[in-house]
Write a structure and sequence with these properties.
Blueprint: H1 11-21, H2 27-31, H3 47-50, H4 60-74, E1 76-77, E2 89-90, H5 94-106, H6 109-119, H7 125-128, H8 130-143, H9 150-159, H10 166-183, H11 191-202, H12 207-210, E3 223-224, E4 230-232, H13 240-252, H14 266-280, H15 287-301, H16 313-316, H17 320-331, H18 338-376, H19 384-395, E5 400-401, H20 403-410, H21 414-426, E6 430-435, E7 438-443, H22 446-454
Antiparallel strand pairs: 1-2, 3-4, 5-7, 6-7
Length: 455
């Protein structure tokens, strides 16, 4: 459990109390060193961590009161009247500033198109990065408790086979949600859209438990920690529709004018949407998945197309406790959104860096592969589509292929896709095995491939 910050601190009263108790009056001035939103390292610390960094000779309450006063005078209001974000505001820390700059530089649709040209594969880059689209759906489900491994989940998605368990149905639901928010990115946010998103994500998993597309009618939905302690009691079900409608109105309001006092960067706004859905918990279950999907929906809406290939849940699941704490720090400290925004920004910066690294590695692998193809004589034997499939397999050795999958991704006929794959088998580049009624293709061991071609 986190230590909640003290409230209703009155600086003049505390000052008089501290002054009367201090043996060394010079320590009074030391309290004033804390009149700043961040510490000397630029960290916007929650009280739960801040309290350990205050010397015992100083009054923790007075120091915290100075910090809070400084933060209140520096933070920007969200202006989300009527919603759960109404009291929310945030301070622009160095972390959030860096994250905003990074997503502007590296994740816009224009930046993605530039990367496509750099790779030199034009429209085929999307196929090469296809695994990354799947990652968010899989990781978001695993964050909610799905026990299926990533390898099995990818195999299920690529083969389009029916899920065999509730865990696999969770992943398929999330996968459909991610495609849904991409397809609906140009629409305004409405209550019906939120309900439809939930329905797509959870239908068929356990309808009695999830109640697809239906807002909770009672106040018995809570968030518990691993020990069963209630750490979050969502706002009452009464008024839920009204609060979410106010949230939709705020989301649909244009905050893009950088000259306006109401300007909010799209990344910050998307993170706030994520928080608001998680805080409200409008559904019986599946709220986290909906919250993260709506984060992506807003980023897509604002033309940050590279987020199709960037998974935040992959990193959130590695530190699920810290993810939960970032919610609680905001909720227990006057709805100060800075804590949640900063944590999400730190995750997003790592996720974008991983995406950029993957793109760079793809470029290097293509160049290396093309060199090997040319020197070995294989290059002249491969068709353009075979080169693409081979490259995808080379970048992700565990990837499996079916004719249906290649047909969809390369926008060709089924017969052409089968010819592409069988040709790779004939060239001793792929293995081919039957699973039920379907042929499954996969990359052969790279050493075996080179050995065969050298000999």
């Amino acid at each position: 459990m986190i230590k909640r910050p003290p409230v209703n601190l009155d600086i003049p009263t505390l000052w008089r109390e501290v002054w009367g108790k201090l043996e060394n009056k010079d320590d009074m001035l030391n309290h004033m060193k804390y009149v700043a939103p961040v510490d000397e390292k630029g960290r916007y610390l929650p009280f739960d961590e801040f309290r350990y960094r205050v010397p015992e000779s100083l009054s923790l309450d007075l120091v915290w009161a100075y910090v809070k006063e400084s933060r209140r005078s520096s933070r920007q209001s969200l202006g989300a009247s009527g919603s759960s974000l109404e009291a929310g505001g945030y301070f622009s820390t160095s972390i959030s500033q860096k994250a905003r700059a990074l997503v502007d530089q590296s994740t816009t649709t224009a930046a993605l198109e530039w990367a496509n040209k750099k790779v030199g594969e034009g429209q085929n880059i999307a196929y090469m990065l296809e695994d990354l689209i799947e990652d968010e759906a899989i990781s978001s489900s695993q964050l909610e408790g799905a026990a299926t491994t990533t390898l099995v989940a990818k195999e299920m998605i690529k083969r389009k086979r029916e899920p065999r368990s509730m865990d696999e149905r969770m992943i398929i639901g999330n996968f459909k949600m991610m495609h849904f928010v991409w397809d609906k990115r140009l629409l305004p946010l409405t209550i019906d859209l939120i309900k439809e998103l939930h329905t797509i994500g959870v239908s068929g998993i356990d309808d009695e438990k999830y109640a697809p597309g239906i807002f909770r009618l009672t106040d018995n939905v809570v968030v518990e920690d691993s020990d069963g302690n209630i750490v979050h009691q969502p706002p009452p079900a009464a008024g839920l529709d009204e609060r979410l409608q106010s949230l939709c109105d705020w989301v649909n309001t244009n905050h893009d004018d950088i000259e306006s006092q109401s300007y909010i960067h799209s990344l910050v706004k998307a993170i706030c949407i994520h928080f608001a859905i998680g805080y409200e918990h409008p559904f019986n279950d599946g709220n986290g998945r909906v919250a993260r999907a709506l984060f992506y929906w807003f980023m897509f809406k604002k033309d940050y197309g590279a987020f199709r290939y960037i998974s935040i849940s992959n990193l959130l699941k590695e530190a699920a406790t810290q993810y939960g704490k970032s919610y609680l720090y905001t909720e227990t400290d006057e709805m100060d959104m800075t804590y949640f925004i900063d944590y999400q920004c730190s995750i997003i910066m790592r996720a974008v860096a991983a995406f950029k690294s993957h793109c760079q590695k793809t470029v290097e692998n293509i160049e290396s592969f093309d060199t090997w193809l040319f020197n070995s004589g294989v290059y002249g034997k491969l068709s353009g589509k075979q080169r693409i499939v081979f490259q995808v397999a080379k970048n992700s050795p565990n990837t499996i292929f079916t004719a249906r999958y290649v047909e969809e991704k390369l926008h060709c006929s089924y017969n052409t896709a089968a010819t592409v794959l069988n040709g790779l088998v004939e060239l001793n580049l792929f293995d081919k095995n039957k699973d039920g009624k379907e042929w499954i293709y996969s990359l052969r061991d790279k050493q075996d491939i080179q050995k065969n071609w050298i000999s």
